[in-house]
Amino acid sequence: MYWIIVDLSARRLYLLTGQTVVQSWPVGIGKTLTQTPIGRYTIMNKEPYPFSHPGGRLSPYGVLWMGLSRKGYGIHGTNNPSSIGKKVSKGCIRMYNRDVETLSRYAPIGTHVVIRP
């Protein structure tokens, strides 16, 4: 069974099985005024966003949203790949679209997520 650690200081998301890191990816995190919340959460839902805006533009959530058990927060893709690795979000965890799609294959609803400083 897989689980996730988001390390805010490293700005990386780690996918683990047991205590073994299977893969890791860079992430964008919350800015100073809207920090990503530290704690233990669960993936509660998933919502694909394929070209959901007029003119075929990606939504701000990129291609996929994975909502966390803390209302209003999630792990998602982005329509602004230059934001990855930076403190720019309203508290969510941003990933490159290809990375969030890969993560989603390993992280079903119910997957545990730990966000640490």
From TrEMBL:
Name assigned to this protein: L,D-transpeptidase catalytic domain
GO biological process annotation, one example: peptidoglycan-protein cross-linking
Domain named L,D-TPase catalytic: residues: 2-116
Pathway assignment: Cell wall biogenesis; peptidoglycan biosynthesis
Protein family (similarity comment): Belongs to the YkuD family.
GO CC term, one of those recorded: extracellular region
CDD domains for this protein: YkuD_like
Classification of source organism: Bacteria, Bacillati, Bacillota, Bacilli, Bacillales
Active site (UniProt): H76, C92
Organism: Marininema halotolerans
Key words, A-Z: Cell shape, Cell wall biogenesis/degradation, Glycosyltransferase, Hydrolase, Peptidoglycan synthesis, Transferase
